[in-house]
Amino acid sequence: MPLGLESCPPQFRQQFEDQWNHWRDSAGHELAAKAEALLKDEPRQLALLRSFTGSDFLYRQCCHNPDLLPELLQSEDLGLDVFDTDPFDSEESLDRALRQLRNRVTAEVIYRDFAGQWDIPRVCLRLTELAETCIQAALAWHHRQLADRYGEPRDSDGNAQSLVVLGMGKLGARELNLSSDIDLIFAYPEPGETDGESGLENQKFFQRLGQRLIKSLDAITADGFVFRVDMRLRPYGDSGPLVSHFAALEDYYQTQGREWERYAMVKARPVAGDEAVAAELMELLRPFTYRRYIDFSAIDALREMKSLIQRQVRARGLSDNIKLGRGGIREVEFIAQAFQLIRGGREPALRERNLLRLLPLLESDGHLEAGVAQRLADAYLLLRRVEHALQAERDQQTQTLPAEDERRAKLACALGRDGWDQLLEELAVQRAVIEREFDAVIAPPEEIAEPSAAEEWEGLWAGCADESSAELNRQALEDSGFTPAQEALDLLADLRTAPVVATLPSAARQRLDQSMPLLLAAAAQENVPLLALTRVLPLVRSVLRRSAYLVLINENPPVLKQLLRLCSASPRIAEQLARHPILLDELLDSRRLLAPASAADIADELRREILRVDTSDLEAQMEALRHFKQSQSLRIAAQEVSGALPLMKVSDSLTWLAEAILQQSLQLAWAQLVEKHGLPAGASPEDMHFAIIAYGKLGGLELGHGSDLDIVFVHDADPMQYTDGGAGRDGSIDNLRFYTRLAQRLIHILQTRTLSGPLYEVDTRLRPSGNSGLLVTSLAAFEKYQRESAWTWEHQALVRARPVAGSARLCSDFEQLRLQLLCEARDEKELRGEVVAMRDKMRAHLDKSNDKNFDLKQGPGGIVDVEFMVQYAALAWARQAPSIVRYTDNIRILESLIDTGLMPAHQAEHLIDAYKAYRSEGHRLALQQLPGVVSGDQFTAERKTVQTNWQQLLG
Predict the structure, then answer these.
(1) Helix, strand and coil in the chain, % to nearest 5
(2) Which domain of life is it from (predicted)?
């Protein structure tokens, strides 16, 4: 009687006993005794029972190779050694060895799975490693045989060529099944020919190589097969060439690639061939797979694929198919890959091929709700384990649950369940989890939502250019708050009859027709519907040829609502979105959009963005900086108009953004100059002996939307020394020339108008001697100028100066120098006269006030008057109270004047209140793209307060 028989379900006892006895007869006395000794351990008994019961394939392999069973029982891993092809003198001997290896590894993973020793990820990984080992071994052997006959294939420059094998699907994702096909694509770098006496075109050489590789893996012999090979995912499928060179592949995918091919390419991974060449191929294919914008059009393609599969499921009665049926494996894959295709272009982390590693990333980035990733993973693992058990039974590719009671009972036993009903109930629960999450992500909105308010607008949009229904349409618009209604109707008719709309492809036109009723319904909910419509339509026009953005709006009602709200609040935001629709991505997560970020958060996020860009591609780095600035500016504006960020924090955020960009831009410029000329003498990457000093609004932490950057560059390197050489033609240059070129390169990065426009306009006129002075000044020369030649207004500007990027040591030295300069003794009467004279001169040239209007900045009692009083107080009194110039922003200087007793609290607080009121209105006007001029009857109390204080302080 075999060991463990008492644990065997009654209906399988005779079968198990027969199997055991047959194996013992095959094994002989010595091996049988060894196995029986090992089987005194109860877990091993149970593992053997489940394995023999659940897998006829494993049982047959153990009988065919009797020593396999004791090896499985006594070890935890038989390993997978490197496959050496040198000993094989014939294709038959190679193929036999490959099949024997495949049978041994397959038998082992079945046993480890049923024994509970390996989890599904480990099983899949071992099967993937087996496939890679077999592909690489067969490829190497056949390449040698062909090269011996025809010579090595080479390109036009004589470089040797190798075949790159792309593993698709589960092979690419390292998720291979027990009985999976392997989906492959063959490619080689360039056309050419072999270098042998019997020369052959590369195309023919690699085609023959591919054919022989397939035969070694796919052909069924007395030893079985290695893997069934499927080549239908290659360009043009079965009708296309078996092998393509890289340029042909790139051309195909860029001009003819279809959405389902993008889906397939998500998991593509080189599994054989030269690694550097394979990496080049993957980089060529990346733009096809991953769009640089958030691509919601991918969802439509996935829905179409899923719909096709579901029709096949119904037609072929596959409801019990745990891969293709509802709540099956394919739906989990669709959920994950939808996010990959939609967002992978912008979020490289989501290009992870392995589903179980991808799910937590989706949750941590907020794409899946908390807990969903684990629920999906648990359901997926159960389905994959059942799938493996189904395929283990007879080594057949199947995902259909058995209909026969005996096979059902065997399956439940192999998986450690008490019976079929228990297993079926578990499957039902987990498939319901998958089905629910799939519907939330992939199912068309109409399948899961109540009829929307947009339906009543469909007719109006369809007939907005029809004169016969004009009156009816005007009434409908007026009833919904679009007044004047004729203006709204004209806007809609102009869009519908626009030539660009008439020539749209059918898919894009369908998306527009779906979007417009949704947009009208949402606009009707705004305070001023016509204003919302007017401001958002330029964006609609700008994306007509990139209609994936319309899908984004269609798929995300909260995005549409947020879009209309922001455009209504600010034409600046509306214009920015119309010019750069990629910023729509920022509206997808309202929590992130409206959550203020710290200076460290902004700097860290920018560093991560730049790390994703090729360090040798300056244009891509500049575009990344610009996109980051635009997206962050949009967030800050959204936070301001929503009330999530008060005025002072808006300026802080805009200032932190500028600082982060300056620091990152400086690092880029530094890296380029050092590569070309080497390091300046005495400098290092940690201390570049160079700093950026901010003046004006940036220096005073008062940056507004669209502000220029007033900056000055200083260094403290020895100008008589040289750089230590570099890779460029210019080689070594003197330090001063290096730092001048560094500043010029930095300005180039900031000001160049790329496709996304400039980063910032830069003003360097506040440097010593202005435009006639050196672009970069040594700290010693800066000090000499400030002490001996600077005008009073330049000392006033120094009140708001602070270092914002570069060498931390030099920045600290500048701060100490600034403090010394500001604390110099000054004649208050003389200072007062010079400050007043400068203010009068500015007002005469810049004040836009008149009898009806008040210039917030330059008008009497306006912003500049407050700033001049603060600067006067700082210069006049810093010697007796240095703490008042510790900070560079006006409000904290005024607060310091209170703390030191140099200004009465009520006086300083009145100035603070007036200053905040002016700046708040200035920010509001900037968002509305209006000049900083208001009606003359506004801010009368504040103006009077400021003017009174001016008289008291400056006479």
Answers:
(1) 65, 5, 30
(2) Bacteria
E strand intervals along 140-280: 153-154, 164-167, 182-188, 193-194, 229-230, 243-245, 269-272
Full set of structural domains in the chain with CATH: 121-289 (3.30.460.10), 297-399+425-441 (1.20.120.330), 455-588 (1.20.120.1510), 640-822 (3.30.460.10), 828-954 (1.20.120.330)
Alpha carbon 891 to chain centroid, angstroms: 39
Distance of alpha carbon 889 from alpha carbon 897, whole angstroms: 13
User: Quick check: 774 and 737 in contact, CB under 8 A?
Assistant: no
pLDDT band at 6 (very low <50, low <70, confident <90, very high): low
Neighbours of 829 (CB within 10 A): 10
Among left, alpha and beta (phi > 0; psi -120 to 50; other), residue 822 is alpha
**Confidence at residue 308, expressed as pLDDT on a 0 to 100 scale:** 61
Write the pLDDT tens digit of every residue in 822-846: 999 999 999 999 999 999 999 999 9
CA-based angle 208:211:213, to the nearest 5? 110
- How remote is the C-alpha of 806 from its chain's centroid? 28
pLDDT tens digits, 653-690: 999 999 999 999 999 999 999 988 999 998 998 899 99
Question: Worst-scoring range by mean pLDDT, 505-509, 803-807, 912-916?
Answer: 505-509
In degrees, rounded to 5, the angle at the alpha carbon of residue 537 between the alpha carbons of residues 533 and 540 is 135
Whole-number Å distance between alpha carbons of 119 and 130: 17
Which tops the pLDDT comparison, 830 or 14?
830
Residue 945: enclosing H or E segment and its boundaries?
Answer: helix 940-954
Question: Per residue in 579-630, pLDDT tens?
Answer: 888 888 788 777 778 888 899 999 999 998 888 787 888 888 998 899 999 9
Q: Residues 717, 665: contact at Cβ < 8 Å? A: no
Closest CA to 782 of 805, 815, 747: 815
Per the CB < 8 A criterion, the answer to whether 620 and 628 are in contact is no
Torsion of CA 239, 245, 247, 251, to 10 degrees: 10
Nearby residues of 284 by Cβ (< 8 Å), 6 or more positions away? 246, 249, 250
Q: Indicate the Cα dihedral angle 845, 850, 854, 859, nearest 10°.
A: 30
Nearest-CA neighbor of 665 among 700, 706, 629?
A: 629
CA-only gyration radius of the chain, Å: 36
Nearest to 697 by CA among 805, 857, 811, 837: 857
| DSSP H/E element including 461 | helix 455-462
Percent of the chain having pLDDT more than 70?
95
